[in-house]
Each structure stands twice: as C-alpha cells, then as structure tokens.
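pasting Carbonic anhydrase for the record, 209 residues
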Amino acid sequence: MESEHGKSALTPQQAWEKLTNGNQRFILGNTQHPNQDGARRESLVAGQEPFAVIFGCSDSRLAAEIIFDVGLGDVFVVRTAGHVLDPASLGSLEFAVDILNIPLIVILGHDSCGAVTAAIDAKESGNMPKGFVRDLVEHIIPSVFAAERSNITDVNGTVVEHVKQTTSRLVDLSSIIETAIAEGRTAVAGVAYKLAEGEAQLVSSMGLE
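structre below
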C-alpha cells in the first residue's frame, strides 16, 4: 500500500467481497481464522495495511474480526455505543482513509441494540438518561424520528434506519471522506448484523459498484 492518497491494494468492491466471504464462512461454521499466528504478528511490527475500517457499535456480541473471519492487521476497528459519530471517531475514520488508504468503511449496527432502544424509550417517555449516556441518546434520536417517518417503530427496524443515517451523516460531516468516495479511493457500506443468524446484511452504501 502506498503513501497518503496512494492506491490501495484492493478496490472498495474487492474489500467488501472479502468481508462478505468471511462472514459467510462464519455463518456456516467454516471459519478459517486467517492471519492469527506468530508469523503474521511478526510481519506487522513494521506497519499495518488493513483493507477495511469497521465503525461499529461497542456491543460485546459484535466483534468485527470474528464475524468477518479476519485476523491481525486486516481491519481497522473504531467502536462507540450505537456507532455514534463524535470528533474522535471521525478523526479515526479520516486517518484510516486518508493516511492508511483503506478502501472501505463499514458502518456496523446490530439488532436488539441497547443504545437505539434507549433512544426510542427516551423519545417516547421524554425522560433523558443521565451523564454522557444522554449525549449518545441525543445523537441517535434523529434516526428514531427518521424511522417513524417511514412508519418504523420497532428496535430492529430503527437500527437499520440508524445505520443508513450514520452512513449519510458521515459523508456530510467529513469532506475528507466525501472526497475519497468521489475519487473512487474508498466506499461506505452500511451493515445491519443479525445476532442470531450471524449475518452481516448490507442496507446502504456509497461508492460501491
């Protein structure tokens, strides 16, 4: 992989297909656990060349390397509860795209999300949570309203809408990422993960073929 603004070893579509293939292995119970040995660990000492950045919810059931069957150095992972965008996560995603030249950003939400549930409850009751949890909920409530405009009120349907909203919001907030998509250097895939089935389902995208 080349220096800043250089070309990635994979196209955005190839990166997405690599993740999709890994997720299918995970669903079927045929995981390969690639790049998880000592040789891979030693090869990464000098630097990293991940092929995707995954911005996902912090939920313990959503371990990106496991559900996509990848290993050390394969994915650059950024996580916040409810995959809420903030300056730190935005900076991390811009670093991944503009410095590491990663060709694919995955927004990873999941069903039964506690953060989305809290936002729905707060909107319905008018009672906001305390501390910085309130900040998380305030960032998710616009997605709750967007879902309701489409007559969606259940948690899992709202999660899908929140993934879509996060995808578009990311591009709105970051001119660096917007430019990278326009130049074909990266793409964004919005994914809703099903806890029971283990399936990572594409629900929105920008820049994919």
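The chain has one domain: 12-206.
The CA atoms of residues 111 and 196 lie 9 Å apart.
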